[in-house]
Recover the amino acids of this structure.
């Protein structure tokens, strides 16, 4: 949000304290509604002293470490953990000090601290009512925790909505971020439309959120380890004659259930889709034509002839990858032109992801670039920890002196296709994320 916007928000308030609160609230409201968990109940698995620090300690929850006051929490205690990237409502006294700014990665006394840890008492009485509704709906076990005043709370309850947590996104991405709050904007705009329901979003879970049980299940599987490109994700799909439509929910007339989207027929422009059989999506919504600030989606279609290649293949398929280049996330790859780099393909008809080997083969056949493949590795004891993959992320560079965002590794078999990302802490610190 620009300084002028904040000034306008605050102009009508006379008291300086009220001005500060209004600016903080404006920052909070500028954030978007998240589509993933940013706050949950977790147990402290480790408490570590920090050399030379008498008043603070490092607390481990899942794969995350968070610095807080010494003796604030005990090992095994149930707490509320809020992840980095979260933006918290300044009207709540317990985090008014953040002033509507997002939680970021910090280094405190040489220790990486990510997120915010607090008492379960942060959950209001009304919030507890909502929590137990969630527990009942999800069938999670309820048991007594004698160390907590809120004695029936289980672990891993998603508190994102209950605590009114919002998500920080880069300014150039916010206009394309689909959420409940922007649904009305989509329905009234010919440029932003709902994503087709038959194509999943380009999600990758943070390695810090992998549980011990999940690590055990991953052992023995082959991980395709790729460099994470610092750009914006894009999906190009081809569904000839609506070959797959059963899962598409009904929509308003101009959407036609999410398949016959009003693409080039409305706006046109370089690289715009030429028929309802072909579509382009950002991570969160469909894109019709070439809306301002999103021209790179159409340009990549034009540059790499993606629609023509998909039609030649004549297969219901969605190609997912990262657009990188000038004006995207500060162009941290230092490129002089836009590029599209494939990381996955979705079989629309079979409703499953393709094996990474087939993805790389098809990309080569279609003359499409792929994200850099670092290695393939069988997951064993050494690889079954978030620390291992974070260390791998720290070794990646875009150029000799430019730290890469991190890595993404994929595992695939006939039952599962999973993607996990490890973000470099040096990258997060450098870019204040």
């Amino acid at each position: 949000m620009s300084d002028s916007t904040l000034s306008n928000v605050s102009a009508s308030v006379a008291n300086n304290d009220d001005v500060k609160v209004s600016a903080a609230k404006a920052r909070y409201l500028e954030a978007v509604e998240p589509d993933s968990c940013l706050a949950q109940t977790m147990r402290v698995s480790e408490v570590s002293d920090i050399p030379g620090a008498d008043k603070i300690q490092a607390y481990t929850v899942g794969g995350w470490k968070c610095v807080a006051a010494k003796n604030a929490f005990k090992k095994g205690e149930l707490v509320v953990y809020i992840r980095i990237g979260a933006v918290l409502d300044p009207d709540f006294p317990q985090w008014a000090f953040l002033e509507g700014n997002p939680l970021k990665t910090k280094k405190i006394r040489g220790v990486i601290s990510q997120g915010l840890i607090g008492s379960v008492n942060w959950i209001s009485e009304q919030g507890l009512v909502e929590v137990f509704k969630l527990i009942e709906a999800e069938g999670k076990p309820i048991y007594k925790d004698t160390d907590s005043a809120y004695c029936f709370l289980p672990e891993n309850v998603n508190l994102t909505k209950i605590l009114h947590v919002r998500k920080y996104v880069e300014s150039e991405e916010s206009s394309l971020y689909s959420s409940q709050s922007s649904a009305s904007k989509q329905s009234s705009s010919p440029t932003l439309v709902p994503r087709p329901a038959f194509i999943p979003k380009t999600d990758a879970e943070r390695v810090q959120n992998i549980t011990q049980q999940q690590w055990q299940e991953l052992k023995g599987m082959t991980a395709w380890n790729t460099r994470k490109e610092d750009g914006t994700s894009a999906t190009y799909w081809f569904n000839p004659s609506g070959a797959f439509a059963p899962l598409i929910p009904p929509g308003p007339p101009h959407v036609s259930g999410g398949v016959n989207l009003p693409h080039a027929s409305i706006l046109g422009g370089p690289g715009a889709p030429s028929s309802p059989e072909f579509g382009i999506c950002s991570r969160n919504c469909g894109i019709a034509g070439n809306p301002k600030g999103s021209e790179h989606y159409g340009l990549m279609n034009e540059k790499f002839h993606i629609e023509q290649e998909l039609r030649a293949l004549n297969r219901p398929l969605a190609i997912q990858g990262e657009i990188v280049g000038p004006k995207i996330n500060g162009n941290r790859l230092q490129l002089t032109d836009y590029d599209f780099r494939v990381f996955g393909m979705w079989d629309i008809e079979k409703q499953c992801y393709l094996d990474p080997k087939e993805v790389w083969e098809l990309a080569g056949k279609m003359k499409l670039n792929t994200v850099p493949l670092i290695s393939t590795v069988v997951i064993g004891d050494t690889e079954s920890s978030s620390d291992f993959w974070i260390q791998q992320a720290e070794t990646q560079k875009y150029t000799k002196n430019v730290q890469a965002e991190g890595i993404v590794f994929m595992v695939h078999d006939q039952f599962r296709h999973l993607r996990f990302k490890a973000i470099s802490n040096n990258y997060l610190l450098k870019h204040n994320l």
Notes: The domain at 180-430 is CATH 3.30.470.30 (D-amino Acid Aminotransferase; Chain A, domain 1). The radius of gyration is 23 Å. The longest helix spans residues 16-30.
